[in-house]
Structure formats: C-alpha cells, structure tokens
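Hi support team,

I submitted a single chain yesterday and got back a structure, but I'm not sure I'm reading the token output correctly. Could someone confirm the output below corresponds to the sequence I sent? I've pasted both exactly as they appear in my results page.

Thanks,
R.
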Amino acid sequence: MGDPAGIGGELTLRAWMALRGNGHSFVALDDPQRLRALARTLDLDVPIEVVQGPSAARGVFAGALPVMPVPLAVRPLPGRPDDANAPAIVASIERAAALSLSGAAAGVVTNPINKAALYRAGFAFPGHTEFLASLTNAVNRQVMMLVSPDLRVVPVTVHASLRNSIAMLTMDMILAASRTTAAALRDEFGIAHPRLAVAGLNPHAGEQGALGDEEVTIIAPAIATLRGEGIDASGPWPPDTMFTRSARARYDVAICMYHDQALIPLKTLDMDHGVNVTLGLPIVRTSPDHGTAYDIAGKGIADPASLIAALALAAELAERRGAPEGRQSLAGRKP
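Hi R., thanks for writing in. Yes, this is the structure output for that exact sequence:
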C-alpha cells in the first residue's frame, strides 16, 4: 500500500494500466474503496476487483486491478498523512511478507512510506528493510541494494545520521554487506564473477591517512579479507571519482560507506528507473527508489516508471529463485 496520502496509489493504478496487456501481473494490498475514488478523481480507467488471495488475481489482471482489501481507518487526503492509517500501512506489509513466506506469492513490492508518520504511531523500525527482516527472521542479514540501468550501489550503513554512520562503521559490517551482495549478484542476478568496488569514507579515500584513517584501519583490511575469500573486491576508491562513466565500467556494484554516498550518484544518473532491492531475505522484496512525493500527490502527474521497474526486477529475481510456475505474485509475474 505505502502511505495512502502519497503517490503510491496513483503509481499502482498507472502500473496496472501499463502492464495489463503483456507485462508482469500483480495484486495490490490496499483499500479498494480508496483506489476506486482515486481512479475517479484522476480520471483513470482502472476497474477494481476484490480478490481473496494471489491465486485469484491471475485471471483478473487483464481486465481489472486485483486488490486484496486492507481497509483504512480514515479517508486519506493527498499530501496530508494521517497517523490513524498507520496500522493499515503496517498490516499491508505484514500480510505481503506472510504471503511470500508461505509461497502463495513470489515476492513483495512496496510503495513508499512516511517513516515519521509511522514512528508517531509506534512503529519501532527504521524502515521497510528492517521491518521485513524482522518479519522474515533475517535480522542483521538484510542488505539494501539500489539498482538502476547504469549503476548498482550498496550502503553499508543505512538509516542513521552521518555522524552515527561514521561512528558505527566497522570491518565486520563491510564484510557482511559485501559477502551478501557478492552471493546475491552471483545467485540471483546471474553475474558469474561479481566485481565489487569499495568506496573510501574520507575525501580522496583518506590520502593514506592524512584526511582520516578509516581506509587504513577498517576498509582496506576488509577488502583484503574479501579477496582472501575469493571475492573480487577492489579499493578503497575515492568517492568523488568512482562513479564516472569509465569507472563504472570496471565494477558490478559499488559498496558505499553511508546512505547518501550510495544514493546520490544513483539518483543523479537515473531517478526514474531506480529500484530498491533487499538482499539477504528469504523472500524477494523490491520497491521504487523514491519517496511519498506529497507535493505532487493527487495531481495526476506521478511517474510509475520506478514502480514498473521494481515489479519487473522482482519477477526476474523470483524466477531465478525458482518460483513455481503459475504462482501469482504480489511482486509481479508474467501472466
């Protein structure tokens, strides 16, 4: 569902319009009444059909958007999040995870949430990634990777302030994120020999300790350990030059030390087609690489490209994991 006051509902409607003919099918976990009202408001021809489970959605998808009902407490207003709807948002995530864990669905694609609104309602997790790790018994194994046509990035520290990110960075964290990423690129993305470029933390990768010693004491030892394990890891690379076109051609993923070091270059290169994928979970999970966009919610101008890309990647990953043929997915499978 995502935050019903944001653009998630419009993205869902527009994704169905784009995919109903020959794309990846999906079932929405949302309030059918709010989707019908939103379609009328935006003048979108999207029939809504309530279904009881993913298995019923395949036959429906070509003619209507299949929706498993998750009722909202109050009618959402575009751009104005309401704490009263937080339980429904959380319930939609819980239900999606349960369906994927049970095998009823091939994966989960999440629409953007407003973390602050959920925090006010008692949500105890930094975001989707950590919540899904808890729901799937994969705490401390989850890794966030952002994927676009031009770049893949993994932030080692994620939802923390810059000050705290630097303080918490350890060799073990770099090793864990890199190992999970290398395995996922090999097993789920079909890259036989993944190349990992590890970023430095400081300007110019520390200038051999003159601008900071984390490269010498933490990052370089981690790279050496990874190489000793047979993982093609290189660096630490200066963050201000490792994202140029020529540099990107030399690696398959950039392992970055903190959130914005990873996300700024990816979003600058291709904001519209970026996808957030959670590695290390027993289920497939992707999401659009953008937020709730309250400023344009309800205006009929939201671009569904990132959600469509997230659906396509989820379907691809599910197929590589060997999702049983014919199983309908929250994350999308070809009908």
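A quick pointer for reading it: The domain at 1-142+281-335 is CATH 3.40.718.10 (Isopropylmalate Dehydrogenase). Let us know if anything else looks off.

Best,
Support desk
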